[in-house]
Amino acid sequence: MKIKNICCIGAGYVGGPTMSIIAQKNPKIKVHVVDMNTNKIAAWNSENLENLPVYEPGLSKVVKEARGRNLFFSTDVNKHIDEADMIFISVNTPTKTTGEGKGYAADLKYVEACAKQIAKVSKSNKIIVEKSTVPVRTSEKIKQILRLNNTDVDFQILSNPEFLAEGTAMRDLEIPDRVLIGGDDTIKGQKAVNSLVKIYSSWVPKENILTTNLWSSELSKLTANAFLAQRISSINSLSELCEKTGADIEEVSKAIGMDLRIGSSFLKTSVGFGGSCFQKDILNLVYIARSEGLEKVANYWEQVLIINEHQRDRISKKIIDLIRKEKLEPKILLLGWAFKKNTNDTRESAAIYVTNNLLNKNIGIDVYDPKVKQSQVDFDLSNINADYDKSLVNFIEEPFLNVSEYNIIAIMTEWDEFKDYNWEKIYKKINNPSYIFDGRNILEIEKIKKIGFNYIGLGRN
Ligand SMILES: NC(=O)c1ccc[n+]([C@@H]2O[C@H](COP(=O)([O-])OP(=O)(O)OC[C@H]3O[C@@H](n4cnc5c(N)ncnc54)[C@H](O)[C@@H]3O)[C@@H](O)[C@H]2O)c1
Fold first, then answer.
1. What SS3 class is residue 341?
2. Which atom of ligand 1 approaches the CA of 165 most closely?
3. Measured distance CA(278)–CA(301) in Å, rounded
4. 405 flagged as catalytic
5. Which atom of ligand 1 is nearest to the CA of 54?
6. Which residues make Cβ contacts (< 8 Å) with residue 422, sequence separation at least 6?
7. pLDDT for the residue 461
8. Gap between the Cα atoms of 70 and 112, Å rounded
9. Contact 18/164 with Cβ under 8 angstroms?
10. Beta strands 393-395; 364-368: pairing state
11. Closest Cα partner for 430 from 383, 372, 366?
């Protein structure tokens, strides 16, 4: 099938950037990104590209080029489903909060709602692409819903999980390590696979486009995230051991990363991983393994999450203990709220959990982040504790305006600007004794100590 019209349901961190690149690279294909969230669509359509709902380096340039030419953002979901030859489902798949699998399984209600809506509206044959991260065999469920609700048209289902990382999404989309497409092993299924291969081939070399069966594709996405998170938890677990033994985690990371069998990426210690995906996808993997009776497999992967929580908690405890022991002002400056640099996404950010731990001990927090808004900080804290003490949290637009009020600065996100601050100037104004908790090991330890700060990094002394 020659694809002329694409519809993507879900204009979030995946749908927006992914469709922008597909539209940019395929100017003859019309791409409509639809969402039921009217504010989000208005932001995607805003004249001022600074106001796009997703912050990603390079995104606004691509939107500027394609928007209005063959890239459109709309709330008219039914119209664009009806017109499309190919529909991407790129909606959220959070962890279930109620019912069977609560706390572990992926909640597929948004995906299922899309399938029902597609079935209801469609009058012509369509290829449905699962872009959302879903449990293995979800495509079977989608197929059932489509068939049950519409017998007049042919639907082919593909799995095409997205591997982009926030913060480097545009680069990841432009030169992906691989594009994965799973489809049915039937003539129609393979034709559908080829249609999607053709779209990606406009910029991705053929050898980087991998085609598999549907189940392998679905499971590969969950597994990729589990492996990545596992590396972070592995290095974070060793950061604590380094602190006990005098080894330096940065030296250990470098030494093991230079082993080509291991490789150097994802070996940077931190206050813990965040983001919308790692936790929920591992929980989902744990749930699937447990549902299949594989208790030991489930326990193995769950440990990745236990270490992540432990890392956040032990850093919180260090700050709390220091304030008590040294009788310091119970107020700190927290630098960074996003779960990592170069994104405005704060979902599951370690900063939220550390802040909550400190608030539970009545420690005041001044928060600064270059890309996150005050309302988001409030939303995140209310989510984890509806009754949190608002009077203890202060969102600040300029990080060092009240620096004389603190003894402690804690870095939560590895934003480049934090490295480049004039730390000497800050030292002259901050309360003494002064401490920097470097939750990302981004500062130059010797330089910071020489200025006079007490430096507390991770896995290094
Ligand atoms: N964020 C990432 O880094 C990332 C990377 C790879 C894969 N994924 C996966 O991609 C999927 C989407 O993630 P995201 O971060 O873009 O989520 P998101 O929450 O940013 O966006 C999802 C959007 O879908 C919309 N939506 C939900 N149901 C809808 C419906 N029935 N009709 C119209 N719009 C609807 C929501 O309003 C929301 O704007 C998830 O399954 C996620 O696991 C995310």
1. coil
2. 3
3. 11
4. no
5. 20
6. none
7. 81
8. 28
9. yes
10. parallel
11. 366
* pTM above threshold 0.90: yes
User: Are residues 458 and 441 in contact, defined by beta-carbon separation less than 8 angstroms?
Assistant: yes
Q: How many residues does the chain have?
A: 461
Contact partners, residue 365, CB within 8 Å, separation at least 6: 331, 332, 334, 355, 358, 359, 392, 393, 394
Residues with CB under 6 A from ligand 1: 9-15, 34-37, 40, 77, 90-93, 110, 113-114, 132-133, 162, 164, 166, 276-277
Catalytic residue, candidates 221, 268, 331, 340: 221
Phi/psi of residue 121, nearest 5 degrees? -90, -25
Cα–Cα distances (Å) from 448 to 436, 439, 455, in that order, read 9, 14, 7
The angle subtended at Cα 203 by Cα 46 and Cα 168, nearest 5°, is 55
SS3 287: helix
- Among 277, 280, 348, 414, the one annotated catalytic: 277
Q: Is 108 helix (H, G, I), strand (E, B) or coil?
A: coil
The answer to whether the peptide bond before residue 135 is cis (omega within 30 degrees of 0) is no
Q: Name the token pair of 395.
A: 């969102």
Task: For the chain, list residues with pLDDT below 50.
Answer: none
DSSP per-residue letters across 228-256: HHHHHHHHHHHHHHHHHHT--HHHHHHHH
Burial class (CB in 10 A: 0-12, 13-18, 19+), 155: buried
**Ligand 1 geometric centre to CA of 108 (Å):** 11
Is position 240 annotated as part of the catalytic site?
Answer: no
Diameter over CA atoms, the chain: 75
Q: Closest ligand 1 atom, CA of 117?
A: 31
Tokens of 445: 């330890």
Q: Whose CA is nearest to atom 15 of ligand 1?
A: 13
* Position 74, amino acid: S
* C-alpha of residue 412 to centroid of ligand 1, in Å: 25
**For residue 205, is the peptide bond before it cis, meaning its omega torsion is within 30 degrees of 0?**
no
Residue 166 annotated among the catalytic residues of the structure: no
Q: Which of 224, 341, 216, 354 is nearest to 278 (CA)?
A: 224
